[in-house]
Write a structure and sequence with these properties.
Distance between the termini: 56 Å
Helix content: 40-55%
CATH architecture: Alpha-Beta Barrel
Strand content: 5-15%
Order of helices and strands: HEEEEHEHEHEHHEHEHHHEHEHHHE
Structural class: alpha/beta
Low-confidence stretches: none
Mean pLDDT: 95
Oligomer: single chain
Number of strands: 12
Shape: globular
Largest sheet: 8 strands, parallel, barrel
Strand order of the largest sheet: 4-5-6-7-8-9-10-11
CATH class: Alpha Beta
Radius of gyration: 19 Å
CATH superfamily: Aldolase class I
């Protein structure tokens, strides 16, 4: 089991770094919106406040470095480069799934970042389906304690599990197990998808179960069906994975759905966000913060400074977007009437 988990993680990382796994048959839907430009914003751009509060922690901008890797040796430096960037910029960060570290405690060091990022909002992470496979509250507590996390992400990935050879596909009764963790863990529980979105019905059920926040992780970014297609060993498995290249709820639609289903919960938008303008649109659509992963992964193999450069670009483009619609704060951005549907091309 230990060897299989490590092999899978290594393959995932290698594919994500070296293959084209971006969605091509479905988009985030964010391109379908545009802001109404304000030539007279009546603002000093340098006074715009990008800060926000999440789980009682103040972030300098509404950005989360989304969960990516862990459990294998290359992940150690990647996570530490990401964490150094988060600490330097005052942002939040999640680590990759910690299941490997529970099965093989020797890999726990690949997730450890608290020594270099003592102040960041830090998320532990586990596949929710593991709650149907022998994991329970005690394992969740170990994951949080292992890295000194402030909250736990339980990720949902039914399509990925279905496409993986030997994947865990028993999601029966999972909501009640999630509810038990939310009730007893002692830190906030965030539920996120991994790239196919959260529907209104799912958001409503998760809110009722007591989750502290939802990360929609919609379609249009990295397609894990493509990642699993690259891992497939047979033509049949390849063809099945390829059939799902257009599957999922576009991120823009999922934000709206989740906001309707869970109007009182903090909402994180992720899934194909690449620029500060994407982040601005996501927040104007109803999100409270945004998660970014793929643009940071290769940079994190280089240095913290490379990660900081990308995050600085995102932050500056977010600030400029707000400036050009006269939004002085994130509250102004969330309540702007200046986001509209873009006309269809050809009209």
């Amino acid at each position: 089991m230990k060897r299989a988990n490590s092999k899978r993680k290594s393959e995932h990382l290698e594919i994500a770094l070296n293959e084209v796994v971006e969605s091509t048959q479905i988009t985030t839907g964010l391109e379908g919106y545009r802001f109404v430009h304000q030539a007279l914003p009546e603002l000093d751009m340098h006074t715009i406040d990008l800060s926000c509060s999440l789980f009682g922690r103040r972030l300098t901008a509404p950005l989360i470095i989304s969960s990516m890797v862990g459990g294998i040796e290359p992940a150690k430096q990647i996570n530490r480069n990401l964490a150094r960037a988060a600490q330097a910029l005052g942002l939040a960060m999640g680590v990759g799934s910690q299941r490997v570290a529970i099965d093989d405690p020797e890999t726990a060091s690949t997730y450890a970042v608290r020594d270099i990022a003592p102040d960041i909002l830090l998320f532990a992470n586990m596949g929710a389906v593991q709650l149907n496979n022998g994991y329970a509250l005690s394992q969740c507590q170990r994951m949080v304690g292992m890295i000194g996390a402030d909250a736990l992400i339980l990720h949902l990935n039914p399509l990925q599990e279905a496409l993986q050879q030997g994947g865990n596909t028993n999601f029966s009764g999972l909501l009640s197990r999630i509810e038990k963790v939310c009730r007893s863990l002692g830190v906030p529980v965030v539920v996120k998808e991994v790239g196919w979105g959260i529907s209104e019905a799912a958001a409503r059920r998760l809110a009722a179960a007591g989750v502290a926040a939802i990360d929609v992780a919609g379609a249009g970014g990295t397609a894990w069906s493509e990642v699993e297609r690259f891992r497939s060993k047979t033509e049949k498995a390849n063809n099945i994975a390829a059939a799902f290249s257009s599957w999922g709820i576009p991120t823009a639609d999922s934000i709206a759905m989740a906001r309707r289903g869970a109007p009182g919960l903090p909402l994180i938008a992720s899934g194909g966000l690449r620029t500060g303008l994407d982040v601005a649109k996501a927040i104007a659509l109803g999100a409270d913060a945004a998660g970014i992963a793929a643009p940071l992964l290769k940079a994190a193999t280089i240095s913290p400074e490379a990660v900081i450069d990308i995050l600085d670009e995102v932050t500056e483009a977010l600030r400029i977007s707000m400036f050009c619609i006269g939004a002085a704060s994130l509250d102004d951005l969330k309540n702007t009437p200046l986001l509209e549907r873009a006309p269809r091309s050809g009209r």
